[in-house]
Design brief:
The protein has 214 residues and is α/β, with parallel strands linked by helices. It is 33% helix and 21% strand. The protein has 8 helices and 7 strands. A 7-stranded mixed sheet has the order 3-2-1-4-5-7-6, sandwiched between helices. Strand 1, helix 3 and strand 2 form a beta-alpha-beta unit. The longest helix is centred in the last third of the chain and has 14 residues. The radius of gyration is 16 Å and the shape is globular. It starts with 8 loop residues before the first helix and ends with a strand. The structure holds S-adenosyl-L-homocysteine. S-adenosyl-L-homocysteine binds next to strand 2 and helix 8.
Length: 214
């Protein structure tokens, strides 16, 4: 998602208390930032932050961190927090490739990927957030019993993501190719912005939950 470059969005972000500015400084110390030892769940590529904001409201027993590379989109997430401030939610503006420099080994308890960019060209496969290269990074920061949840309406990206699991050493815990028809998985489903848009167009939503045995 790339919005028109909104004038002043960088300034708003730089001044926002909801954004963690020196994110590498907190590596291994995120509990200190939140001033508690609750589990940490992150969404990589949160966009305007509807999903993670709703999750943080529903789960005060979890600390949430939303990661987004574009200022223009992050700005919308900040505006949501200004309307409804939540103590257990923070944002980072960063490129996900650097994730192991921001979280220490095992520091994250759950990772969410929602409607990640498809990067359809083969030569860009390593940029896809569910690629084996990214799974190797998640493997470092995710706690041994932690899980990763991925949703998309893009069948090619989902098929690719499923094929990446075995070579990267991950296992499927749940999988559906039509989430909105799956009564069990829908029970605690929180819709993302893209999920609302694409399911309204009639697209099935694909989802998996993965883990590794450590
Ligand atoms: N999760 C939201 C937005 C999906 S669009 C939803 O489901 O509605 C994908 C988002 O991921 C975009 O906002 C894009 O800027 C962000 N993104 C893609 N690749 C990224 C990366 N490597 N690092 C950080 N953010 C990324």
């Amino acid at each position: 998602m790339r919005l028109r470059n909104i004038t002043g969005s960088r300034e708003v972000i730089a001044a926002s208390a909801y954004v963690v500015h020196e994110e590498r400084r907190w590596r291994g110390k995120w509990a200190q930032l939140f001033e508690n030892t609750l589990p940490i769940h992150i969404e990589i590529g949160m966009g305007k932050g509807k999903f993670i904001h709703t999750m943080a409201r529903l789960h005060p027993e979890i600390n949430y961190i939303g990661i987004e590379k574009y200022s223009s989109v992050l700005l919308r997430a900040i505006q949501k927090m200004e309307e409804e401030e939540l103590p257990n939610l923070r944002f980072i503006r960063m490129e996900a490739e650097e994730i192991t420099e921001v979280f220490a080994p095992g520091e994250v308890d759950r990772i969410y990927l929602n409607f990640s960019d498809p990067w359809p060209k083969d030569r860009h496969a390593r940029r896809r957030l569910p690629s084996r290269q990214f799974l190797a990074r998640y493997d470092v920061i995710l706690e041994a019993r932690g899980q990763l949840e991925f949703k998309t309406d893009n069948r090619e990206l989902f098929d690719f993501a499923v094929e990446e699991l075995a070579p990267a050493g991950w296992k499927l815990r749940e999988i559906t190719r039509d989430l909105h028809q799956d009564a069990v998985l829908m029970q605690d489903n929180v819709m993302t912005e893209y999920e609302e848009k694409f399911s309204a167009m009639g697209n099935p939503i694909y989802k998996y939950v993965i883990y590794r045995e450590k």
